[in-house]
# Entry
Amino acid sequence: MSKNDTKYQKMIPMREFYKQNTDIFRILAAYLKVKGFRIDLHRDDRDLPTINSSMSGEGPGGYFRIEQYKCLDPGQYELIDDLFPIRIKGYDFKKVAVSDFEYDDDRIWKPSISFVIYKGNHNILPYKELMDYL
# Structure
C-alpha cells in the first residue's frame, strides 16, 4: 500500500484516533460495563476508558485492562468471545487476544483484551505508527 493510496491516507495513529473518537470509546466502556466488565478509566474523566496501543498478528491495535484483581473465569472467557466483534458507529472492534490476571512479588497485571479496529474490512491503524513509537 503506497502513501498515495486512499486507504493509507485514511489511516491514523491510535493516539489520534482515540483523541478524535472519544465518544466511540465511551460507548465501548458503557457497553462492556452493562455486560459485566468494568474497564480501567481515566482519572480525570471517569467515563473515558484508558486505551493503550498494541501490536498483534492482525496489525496495530489497542488494548484495555479489566478492573479485576483475579483470573477470568470460564464464563467470562465465553462472554468475551460472544461479545466480539463489536460494531460502534461503523467501526468494528475485533478481539485478537485476552491476557489473564498475573502477578509476581511486587507487581500485578489486570486482565486485558487486545483488539484491532476495522472499517470496511481494513485495519484503520497504520503499521508505521507503532514502529515509530518503538
